[in-house]
Amino acid sequence: MSQAQLGTDRRGAASVTTTGTYTPKPGAAPLPRMIRAQAALETRMLLRNGEQLLLTVVIPTLLLVLFSSADIIDTGPGEAVDFLAPGILALAVMSTAFTGQAIATGFERRYGVLKRLAASPLPRWGLMTAKTASVLVTEILQVILLTSIAFALGWSPHGNPLAVLLLLALGTAAFSGLGLLMAGTLKAEATLAAANLVFLLLLVGGGVIVPLDKFPAGAQDVLGLLPVSALSDGLRAVLQHGAQMPWGDLGILAVWAVVGLGAAGRFFRWE
């Protein structure tokens, strides 16, 4: 090839490079794409975390299988799984939206991850939206797994599906607000200890596996106002007893959601 031809080829290549489809276009990606990418990252991180999987998958599954198969606690008339399945679904929502989210967000705040993300083109409300989407994706996977296991154990649910979805949505909002409030105001180590302690206390006293009527009358009135009690009781009223819309439990969850999300928005510190 001659020098003239080589020069022509080089000029032609330069022209293609200049006017081709790979011209740089600096700037932030569209907001929906940023939120989707952050939500996918949050979900992958959650599913790869051994402690998170223990809270969100292993513990609820073991409790459902163990207490449904062995006569350990008197759950009243009917099959034990009919009482336990709604409570375990409530526990799954709490473990993901409250315990897991509080711990993960608390350590992200400690290590400066939230501070750096807050300086990115993704707005802070977009980051919270991505975290919420990650929680919802995880909860969908939990519900599919736990309901499949419950059906295998002989569960026979009935009731209004719309009421179930509304209960789960309000329960998620309530627990997310409380989890973000804890993660945004306490140190990471304190959040870790407090979130796990609250998880254990509500597991025992929130009507998840032990009926509230097993507690003293005075304690029942107080425990019934807890978000996990309202969620498990509402799911049980619909799925076990066929109630159309448990307005009392929905009201309790709505109050917790408003208070929790409002307080998290007011007091959350990013660093």
TrEMBL record:
Residue ranges of domain ABC transmembrane type-2 in the record: 47-271
Keywords attached to this entry: Antibiotic resistance, Membrane, Transmembrane, Transmembrane helix
InterPro entries: ABC2_TM, ABC2_TM_bact-type, ABC_2_transport, Nod_factor_ABC_transporter
Native species: Streptomyces populi
Transmembrane segment boundaries: 53-73, 85-107, 133-156, 162-183, 190-212, 250-268
Coiled-coil ranges from the UniProt annotation: none
GO molecular function, one term: ABC-type transporter activity
Protein name (Swiss-Prot/TrEMBL): ABC transporter
GO BP: response to antibiotic
Cell location: Membrane
